[in-house]
Write a structure and sequence with these properties.
3-stranded parallel β-sheet, globular
């Protein structure tokens, strides 16, 4: 949240359970796909291992085109990318590049 906020991108925290069969519909109802062109999944490595793929798939199903994940993907890189994660945000990442690409994704004027 702080990374995106530092770049002037409005953020909201929305909790959802990707293992709930209605997760995509609940998420879309909570935020609306117009309000969320990009989403960043934030959780622990344990939770990522259990449900990050399902979360990314649910977000994509809800119409979110750009799914980011906070953390290094490690051995989950390939399955998470296949599930729809387009950007991994972690210590050492090129923050300006992430913010530039996110702003482009959002169609934001600079």
């Amino acid at each position: 949240k702080n990374l995106y906020g530092a770049g002037g991108i409005r953020t909201e925290v929305v909790e959802f359970d990707p293992l709930n069969g209605d997760a995509a519909a609940l998420f879309a109802a909570a935020v609306g796909t117009d309000a969320a062109a990009a989403v960043c999944l934030c959780s622990s490595d344990v939770v990522y291992g259990q449900s990050a793929e399902a979360a990314a798939q649910a977000l994509r199903k809800a119409g979110i085109l750009h799914v980011h994940l906070a953390g290094k993907p490690g051995t989950l890189a390939d399955p998470l990318t296949a599930a729809g994660v387009s950007t991994f945000v972690h210590a050492g990442v090129d923050v300006l590049d992430v913010l530039d690409r996110t702003m482009d994704t959002l169609g934001a004027a600079r």
